[in-house]
From TrEMBL:
Specifically acetylates 'Lys-40' in alpha-tubulin on the lumenal side of microtubules. Promotes microtubule destabilization and accelerates microtubule dynamics; this activity may be independent of acetylation activity. Acetylates alpha-tubulin with a slow enzymatic rate, due to a catalytic site that is not optimized for acetyl transfer. Enters the microtubule through each end and diffuses quickly throughout the lumen of microtubules. Residues 1-187 form the N-acetyltransferase domain. This is Alpha-tubulin N-acetyltransferase. Belongs to the acetyltransferase ATAT1 family. One of its GO terms (molecular function) is tubulin N-acetyltransferase activity. The record marks Q55 as: Crucial for catalytic activity. The keyword Acyltransferase applies.
Length: 337
């Protein structure tokens, strides 16, 4: 099978790939694109297997198929353009992506974050300790506009810990139960979660129709024994709540107020007639009384037993009888057993 050279596929020393597996700046027809993707997939799978072997993992982390199925993951490839007689060769890779994690700091306070994670980092064995790893890592930090203290490392190996200590001053990592590890400075700007395990929601004022005043419930007023809120009387075209009328004894004992010119004026007959018309409506609008305040009248006498023309002695209402005195089938049924 024909393969495409690395220098023909990757035009830059460090290439950024996503799930499309099409390097930036690559041009060609459909056949050349498919041939390039097959060649690039073979290189990625070979680097993934070498990385898993070097870290002592049971399964391969980085493959071309996994990258295609992860739209949020990014793969950086480092090449040596002078290798293999000028055709070029890939000597290192770095895969990153964001993960939704729950992390604990040194005080055992949990934080729910979605940081940028280093998922796989590998340089060929014969190219290590030449500065290629730092060049690749610095390019990623500059491209993502972040720092090494803000990253979460997936399963860091001892070589990775030495790399971070030597180049970025991270003396130790806080290893988590989910196999990730972060620097102690990571939690400087991370949000905390309360004891219930949920982040405290921000209190926002009510807007729109939710901020409108709500009328009191008439049902609640009846249940709690109060009068109806909607009782009112109309006078001079204005509505106002009713006030309790004073007792007759108190009104007789109280001295009569001195008459004033304004007190002598009486209401027009039209308004008094209108008030009399509104009283029946107000009586019908009153809320029902509570069951505990209803009066229960004892039964004075038992209804007399009437023998129907059909020979039945069971007491029934008149509405259960037909015109001829027989029981109506709608109201009376004999048991069949």
């Amino acid at each position: 099978m024909e393969w495409v050279a690395v220098n023909d596929m990757l035009s830059e020393n460090i290439t950024k790939l996503n799930y499309t597996l099409i390097p930036p700046g690559f041009r060609g027809d459909v056949r050349s694109v498919r041939l390039m993707q097959d060649s690039l997939s073979k290189l990625i799978d070979a680097l993934g297997e070498q990385s898993a072997t070097a870290q002592g993992l049971n399964k391969v982390i980085t493959t071309a198929e996994k990258l295609r199925n992860a739209p949020t993951h990014i793969l950086y490839l480092l090449k040596d353009s002078k290798a293999k007689g000028g055709k070029g060769d890939v000597i290192g890779m770095l895969k990153i992506g964001r993960k939704h994690l729950f992390l604990f700091d040194e005080r055992d306070k949990v934080c729910e974050v979605e940081p940028l994670c280093v998922l796989d980092f590998f340089v060929l064995r014969d190219r290590q300790r030449h500065g290629y790893g730092k060049v690749l890592f610095d390019h990623m930090l500059q491209d993502m506009e972040t720092s090494a203290h803000e990253l979460a490392i997936d399963g860091p190996s001892p070589k990775m810990e030495q790399f971070l200590l030597k180049n970025y001053g991270i003396e130790r990592l806080l290893k988590q139960n989910n196999n990730f590890a972060v620097a102690p400075q990571f939690f400087a700007g991370a949000p905390e979660i309360n004891k219930s395990g949920r982040s405290t929601p921000a209190v926002t004022p009510a807007l729109g129709r939710f901020a409108a005043p709500k009328p009191p419930s008439a049902i609640a007023t009846v249940i709690h024994g109060g009068g109806s809120y909607y009782e009112h009387e109309t006078r001079n075209g204005e509505s106002r709540p009713t006030t309790p009328e004073p007792d007759s004894a108190q009104t007789q004992d109280a001295p009569a107020p001195e008459s004033t010119p304004q007190a002598e004026t009486t209401e027009p007959p039209i308004q008094s007639e209108h008030k009399q018309e509104m009283e029946p409506q107000l009586e019908s609008n009153k809320s029902p009384e509570r069951p505990s305040t209803l009066s229960v009248e004892p039964i004075t006498e038992t209804p007399a037993t009437v023998i129907s023309p059909a020979g039945s002695t069971i007491s029934r209402r008149d509405s259960q009888l037909t015109d001829r005195g027989f029981f109506d089938v709608k109201f009376y049924h004999n048991k069949l057993w």
